[in-house]
Structure formats: C-alpha cells, structure tokens
Amino acid sequence: MLRPDDFDFLARLLKERSGLVITPDKSYLLESRLMPLARTRNLKGLEDIVQKLKTRDESLARDVTEAMTTNESFFFRDTKPFDQFRQIILPAMLEARASKKTIRIWSAACSSGQEAYSLAMILRDEAARLSGWHIDIIGTDISVEMLEKAKAGLYSQFEVQRGLPIQFLIKYFKKKDESWQIDSSLRGMVQFREFNLLHDLRSLGHFDIVFCRNVLIYFDQPTKAKVLDGISHSMPEDGYLYLGGAETVLGISDRFKPMPNQRGIYCLNGGPGGSKL
Fold first, then answer.
1. Do the Cβ atoms of 135 and 162 come closer than 8 Å?
2. Most-buried pick from 30, 71, 158, 242 (CB within 10 A)?
3. Judging by DSSP bridges, how do beta strands 190-194 and 134-141 pair with one another?
4. Which of 189, 138, 57 is nearest to 49 (CA)?
5. What is the pLDDT of residue 274?
6. Residue 33 to residues 40, 71, 122, 179: CA-CA distances in angstroms?
7. CB-based contacts of 56: which residues, under 8 Å, 6+ apart?
8. Can you list the domains of the chain with their CATH numbers?
9. Structural contact between residues 45 and 1, judged by C-beta atoms closer than 8 angstroms
10. HEC string of 227-240?
11. CA distance linking residue 87 with residue 92, whole number of Å
12. What is the dihedral of CA 61, 64, 66, 71, to 10 degrees?
C-alpha cells in the first residue's frame, strides 16, 4: 500500500509535469500503470520509484509521466465529430480560405495517431475538392513512445477493428506480418511532434481547426482555463475547436462559445459563429 506522503509526491510530480490530476480514489491507477515500469527498472515497487524520483532522476520522471498520461485512441472515435468535420467544418473552411488555399489542423494529445490519420483519410477522400490546397495536420503528444508508434503508422488487428470502416482499411492499409500499416502517402500528410500542453503554444503556430478531445477531463479547473486560453490565442477568429463529449468551456473560459446545434464544437467569442455571450 502506497504511503500517503508517497502518493502526494507522485501526484504533485504528475500535476507539475503534465497537468494530470490524480486523486486518492484513483490511486489504483498508479499501481496498475507504474508497477510494470518498476519491474522494467528492477525496482521492487512504487516506494522504490518515489525514492529514485527524489534523487532527481529525470529519465525515470519522464517514464513515470509517460506511463500515467498514455491514453487509448482509436480510429474515427465517436464517429459524429468526423461526420461534422466532413459535412460542416471542412466546407466552411474551404469557403473561408478560398483565397489562401491553406488550412492547418492540430490533433492535440494525439496518442498513437488514430485521430490525425482519421482526418487524413477524410481529406484524401475529398481530394477532388482539395486540388491546389495545402493542408497541414500536426499531431502532438507528451509521450515519445506513442509518437514513435504514430509515425510508424503500424496498428494491430484489434486496433484497426475499432472504428475503422472496412473500405478505409482496404484502401489505405497494407498487411505487414501480424499488423496493418497505413499507406506512406497518408503518413506523409501528418507531422508528429513532442509537445506538452502546459507549455507555451505559440511555438506551434496558428491553427484553423483544433481537436483537443478527451484531454481536459484530466485537468483541474485552472489548468483547463490555461490550456483553453492558449488554444484561443493559436486560432483565427473563424477557427473551430473540438472537445470531447464530456467536456465543456462553460464556467471555465469565456474565450469560446458552443457552435449552435453542433455538440462538441466551439467557436471563439466574437467570431463569426455568433455574437459574444
């Protein structure tokens, strides 16, 4: 059983490094995610991890943060956000950016890359409408391990069965041993970078569309507000922000307002999505 002061130490470290909030009722997550790391490092348990962390072992601190912040992802997660992207957001952007013919899309906390590649597949399917356009998709995550997996574009049978339409599997993937690898041309459509959402977002540039889904739920209110404020300064007035179904900006940030009749999509206050709240 983890001592209260050891729990507090780990909770503080995770909050400072990633924004992740671990409450005592979620202490079982520390056990389930950090014990494999302890075995890899030839440590007896969580107490040994804490003792090594107190010696300012940066490599271990990084591994602990990665182990605790790695979240599962799957292709076309929840379906509707991607239908909205294809049917509403992309047409609106094609009209709004007709003179520049450039669109930048950010998949924040992209994990192993399925969200970013789902967007790339939609865009490839819309190639006729996008002739002459330059579209950047940037996927960022705190986990180097997940980013390497995303860059490889290599997924298990289980992973491609979760949400990926069969026609896309046939069209954009090739069997490689027991796994499936996404087509190299699609891999070339997405840039993956290591990035911590608690850091200054300006280094990433501006984005017309931001997917930050199922991320804010792990943060406390001040951290949510800080991240949303940073995102708001990284978007043009007519940009769009996607959040997860259980997430909202209401009561957290006055920089955004919900897009009318489109659950999960937000526009900047004062932007073209309506008047200020």
1. no
2. 242
3. parallel
4. 57
5. 42
6. 12, 11, 34, 25
7. none
8. 4-69 (1.10.155), 80-268 (3.40.50.150)
9. no
10. HHHHHHCCCCCCCE
11. 9
12. -150
How many Å apart are CA 249 and CA 51, to the nearest integer?
A: 39
Residue given tokens 């909050």 in the structure block: 15
Tens digit of each residue's pLDDT (9 = 90 or more) over 45-99: 899 999 999 999 999 998 999 888 867 789 999 999 999 999 999 999 999 999 9
Question: Terminus-to-terminus CA distance in the chain, angstroms?
Answer: 49
Alpha-carbon distance 92 to 18, whole Å?
Answer: 34
The pLDDT tens digits of the residues spanning 208-257 come to 999 999 999 889 999 999 999 999 999 999 999 999 988 999 999 999 99
**Sign of the torsion formed by the C-alpha atoms of 34, 111, 246 and 273:** positive
